[in-house]
């Protein structure tokens, strides 16, 4: 039996819209509760004896049929019953928006008369959102839109909705609505994909007799085909089935697919692919080598040019040295279970996806040399829109440097969508603050505040402190100090039979805030206090500190200050550009030697040292740098390569 679905009150705005329009599009950001609302509306209509169809346009997690498709379903016996799919073979609604719109139009034409709810994907920003939402509304022939958006965070596509000329109602998301997170979505879609293939059988397709569409890998790379989704279409372009490629063997394609209703005429293959971990995700673009590469002209891959990209896991945070040990300093700190990031320094951001800039709340800049601040233009461009101000912290003079970068651009078209920043400069134990708005000629002073012990930022769960070092110019080193770490005991979670989900993040938040009396809604619909759930499920331990230091001369005062900041830290990211034999070069440029780096780590008693910012003169052999570090700090950990950066 499917789990019962809550009904909507009789005066709910969506029900009112459906009295005036047969077809309504439900839009909102990820995690706003669109699919839950659509289910509740369908259940309410069914209780009244009215039929309801849903067209799910989120190929990443349709909630009705298989991922990698647009799906049409009918509400029946308390759940959606799949009636038709339009294969897309991708999970990315933004990138493949034209095929998605075509798929929605095809399914909307197949839908019977009566109520049809279009569950739109959560693509609500940028060019993709601005193009996709109006196109979906027109393709499905909707008469009205219901938008889920909080009053404090206006819907980014408000103007696009107005331009459609259709009735539109904005409704605040339900209080319990939460983004489930990438990990949960990936696991859920993989489960849905496995369920779709339960009745699958193996088939062999002769490629010369079929048309291939989409973004197929080259035939010369058969390894790039295995695991990809494949849509099987008839001569009219209707979907016969959606399967998984097992292997490309010359001109033959072996696949797994549920039984087909006809003979395929064409195939569609894009980027949805089962990974080595068995989960369905998005394949990286297949890189093809040039046919006649010149030995001296072939560029080294980024990984080899910038070296390994060390990563540190601190429970609540994951820290990644984005540009490796040789590239521009940029440490990305990802807050788990949140679509939020912090950055230490702002070097070349080319490895970071643009959408991550929308999730950066705080940037801590050591100093204004180009390799530490040059990425600000990336952040600046990505913050055009209705975003809250991004906070930046650094040494005296930072606001002036940032204002100079902003003022070098003509801002006559952005109006109220101008990027906004709040800048804090550490002057001793006082934080001097400024507001910078693109289009304004100078920073606006904000009230200064005390910064005892170099405290730059403090919020529930963690704080960031700094100390001032000397590099011929003031430089800040930073310490990230989580208050506590709250971990879920998975064995206890499984013993209770509760699936993981956003409710665990809510529980952790209340525990960290000391709100033990708060009620937490469990997956089975019951509620319990945060205190009782914490006792049953959570493990609390002291937070693990991370310290970041780069560009400092090897002086007694610098050593004293950095050792004090890093004392007992779990991990220290510290520069080590030069060998001891290059001490004169290090002294002249205001940097550390590898030996000095190791000595500082040993004096501070850190658990792990991650040396970085190596001079490129050592790019062919870092062994000597590491050997010198280990002479002073034998506990240096091996570099742990990091994976591809993501945004949630």
Overview of this structure, please?
- There is one protein chain.
- This protein has four domains: 13-178, P-loop containing nucleotide triphosphate hydrolases (Rossmann fold), CATH 3.40.50.300; 197-282, Pre-mRNA cleavage complex subunit Clp1, C-terminal domain (Elongation Factor Tu (Ef-tu), domain 3), CATH 2.40.30.330; 302-482 and 545-632, Metallo-beta-lactamase, Chain A, CATH 3.60.15.10; 484-542, no CATH class.
- It is 25% helix and 29% strand.
- The chain contains 17 helices and 34 strands.
- Helix 3 packs parallel to helix 4 (126-140).
- The longest helix is centred in the first third of the chain and has 15 residues, at 126-140.
- The model is unreliable at 288-304 and 637-648 (pLDDT under 50).
- Residues 20-236 form the AAA+ ATPase domain.
- This is Ribonuclease BN (tRNA processing enzyme).
- GO terms for molecular function: 3'-tRNA processing endoribonuclease activity.
Indicate the percent of residues in helices: 25-40%
- Give the count of structural domains: 4
Strand order in the largest sheet: 16-17-18-19-20-21-22-23-24
Indicate the overall shape: globular
Low-confidence stretches: 288-304, 637-648
Corresponding CATH superfamily of the largest domain:
Ribonuclease Z/Hydroxyacylglutathione hydrolase-like
Radius of gyration: 27 Å
Mean pLDDT: 87
Distance between the termini: 32 Å
Structural class: alpha/beta
- In DSSP terms (H or I, runs of 4 or more residues), the helix count works out at 17
- Main pleated sheet: 9 strands, mixed
CATH topology of the largest domain: Metallo-beta-lactamase, Chain A
CATH class of the largest domain: Alpha Beta
The assigned CATH architecture of the largest domain is 4-Layer Sandwich
Estimate the strand proportion: 25-35%
Count of distinct strands: 34
Pfam families: Lactamase_B, Lactamase_B_2
GO molecular function: 3'-tRNA processing endoribonuclease activity
InterPro entries: AAA+_ATPase, Metallo-B-lactamas, P-loop_NTPase, RibonucZ/Hydroxyglut_hydro
Protein name: Ribonuclease BN (tRNA processing enzyme)
